Amino acid sequence: MHLFQPVAAANIVVDMIIQNTSIEGHTDLTFTVPKGDLKKTLAIVKPVAPISGWKRIERGEHRQGLHRRRGHEEQRRGGARMFEAMAAENINILMISTSEIKISCVIEDKYGELAVRVLHDAFGLDVPPLKKK
């Protein structure tokens, strides 16, 4: 895709890409980059977007990305646990992408620290590992 070639050339990591088509037939493309690379990415993408056929660019600066890697079966249970934990704290998931080994979601920046704590507790990451004898 012409849009991502110059981004990759600038060594900007694109973590999540979501593309869908609306009822009107318009294609929406959403992708995430590290917060520190947002301005650089916009400077690269704005001149390239019209050439690639994109009509409008919107940005969301106040977003957090959360990632969780798991096995396939546990992925399903982990997804449900993640949704329940986030919902219990009224944290809205703005975007989500899943694969067999990973769940990634984007939330509002202001909930980043809370979401990490909530997920940390939900998955029992506060329990110290067992010591080997």
CA radius of gyration is 18 Å
Q: Tell how many strands the DSSP assignment holds.
A: 5
Q: Which strand-content bin applies to the residues?
A: 15-25%
Global shape: elongated
Oligomer status: single chain
Distance between the termini: 53 Å
Question: What attributes does this structure have?
Answer:
two-stranded antiparallel sheet; about 130 residues; about 35% helix; alpha+beta; three-stranded antiparallel sheet
Which secondary structure elements does this structure contain, and how are they paired or packed?
Elements: H1 4-9, E1 17-21, E2 27-31, H2 38-48, E3 63-69, H3 72-88, E4 93-98, E5 102-108, H4 112-122
Antiparallel strand pairs: 1-2, 3-5, 4-5
What features would you describe in this structure?
- It contains four helices and five strands.
- The chain is an alpha+beta fold.
- It has helices at 4-9, 38-48, 72-88, 112-122; strands at 17-21, 27-31, 63-69, 93-98, 102-108.
- The radius of gyration is 18 Å and the shape is elongated.
- It has a three-stranded antiparallel β-sheet with strand order 3-5-4, with helices on one face. The protein has a two-stranded antiparallel sheet with strand order 1-2.
- Helix 3 (72-88) crosses helix 4.
- Helix content is 34%, strand content 23%.
Short description:
The chain has 133 residues and is an alpha+beta fold.
